[in-house]
Amino acid sequence: MEEELLRIFAGAPFSFEDVALRIFARQYERCLPYRRFCDRRGKSPAQVTDWREIPHLPVTAFKHARIYSGQGEPAHYFQTSGTTQGQERRGRHYFEKLDLYAACSRPIFKRFILPDRERIPMLMLAQPPAANPHSSLSWYFDQQAQAFGESAAWFVDEHGLKVAELEAALKAAEGPVLLLGTAFAFVHMVDSGLSVRLAPGSRVMETGGFKGKSREVGRDELYRLIQGALGPDVVCLNQYGMTEMSSNCYDQTLVKGSSRKGGPAWVRVRMLDPETLEEVPHGTPGIVAVTDLANLYSCAFLLTQDIGVAYEDGFEVLGRAPGSEARGCSIAMDEFLQVNRL
Question: Average of pLDDT values for 136-152?
Answer without folding.
Answer: 96
